[in-house]
Each structure stands twice: as C-alpha cells, then as structure tokens.
UniProtKB/TrEMBL annotation:
This is Ribosomal protein S4. Residues 16-43 are annotated as: Disordered. One of its GO terms (molecular function) is structural constituent of ribosome. Pfam families: Ribosomal_S4, S4. SUPFAM superfamilies: Alpha-L RNA-binding motif (SSF55174). It comes from Membranoptera tenuis. Residues 3-89 form the Small ribosomal subunit protein uS4 N-terminal domain. Belongs to the universal ribosomal protein uS4 family. InterPro entries: Ribosomal_uS4 (IPR022801), Ribosomal_uS4_bac-type (IPR005709), Ribosomal_uS4_CS (IPR018079), Ribosomal_uS4_N (IPR001912), S4_RNA-bd (IPR002942), S4_RNA-bd_sf (IPR036986). The lineage of its organism: Eukaryota, Rhodophyta, Florideophyceae, Rhodymeniophycidae, Ceramiales.
Amino acid sequence: MSRYIGPKLKISRRLGDLPGLTRKKSHKTFPAGEHGQQSRKPSEYALRLEEKQKLRFNYGLSERQLLKNIKIAKKVQGSTGVILLQILEMRLDNTIFRLGLSPTIPAARQLVNHGHILVNNNILSICSYQCKPGDVINVKNKTASISLIKKYMNFPGLINIPNHLEFNKDNLTTKVNGIIEREWVALQLNELLVIEYYSRK
C-alpha cells in the first residue's frame, strides 16, 4: 500500500490527534462516515489496528516501510515498541518537524526532497535518513530556502523542541546530541499494541 494522499481531516477524526499529519481541527467529535456515530465496543484486533494506523499516518509511512522498521527494532536489545518509536522519531523529516521548521511531517518531507536541508554540510534528499548523535542539520544558504523556513517557523506544528536536539534560531543550525527519550514522543499511542498486531502476522 502506497503513502496516503487523501483527505487528512477524515483520518484525524477517525484516529484522534495526529500532530505530524495535519494541523486542521474538526468541530465534530465522532468519526467520519455513516457508522461514525454508532457506539460499539471495538474488538482487540480493532484496537491494535487503530494504534498501527496512528503510527502509519502520523509519520507518513507505507505498510512496507513500517514493517521494515519493526524488523529492525526487533533485532535491537531493549523494548521493541520504544525502539520503534525512536527509529521513527530520528528520521530526518520528523526531526525537521520537531524543530518547528515545518508545520507538518509532509511539509518537512517536501523541504528535504527539494534540497533545502543540509546534513553535515551535504544536501540530503532522503527523508528516511536516520539522524545520529553528532549530526549537524542546517538550512541551505539561499534566500528562497531561508525565507520559506522562516515563514514556517512563525506557525510551528509543536511548541516544545525535544531535549536531544540543540537548535540555534539565528543561523538555523541544529545539532543532534543523542537519541530521543520515550516521554518526548508527541503522539498519544500504545506502541505495545502495534508490536502485538505484527506479532500475529
């Protein structure tokens, strides 16, 4: 299944607040569709599927990409769910979003694809690049790049910058000082249910 490009508000109504997907808010409290207002107790499978879909839509991943990241997380020692979240949070597109350089993760992905972002003084157009401690991220020294990012910075998606990132607003330079901790993940999610969903596959 490819990346979702349909109506984003519909997804946020169904799955709850997804800060990385969209900043739009709906005035309606129930999910979209003719069955949205029916209150039924969801099955265990439905709960696991919903948590998995939250992860997919918030970070803008395809099913194959998410499965690949889960396989990587399982090979690392520690809690698989927390490691999975760390892998997704340390992606370049998400790091740019968390710095407030873009309003959403799709907007951050576009900045990377169009060559506005430098990592260790090299233009990098790979959104899934895993940021490592010691990496220096900055904006291309061009008027178009700087003016676009400064416009985005007036309306950041999330207010708090995680403690593993050191950001200099004057020259738009960031240093990655470590790996993100679980409490700094902005998405309200039970990651264990995601791992359980894939363990039955």
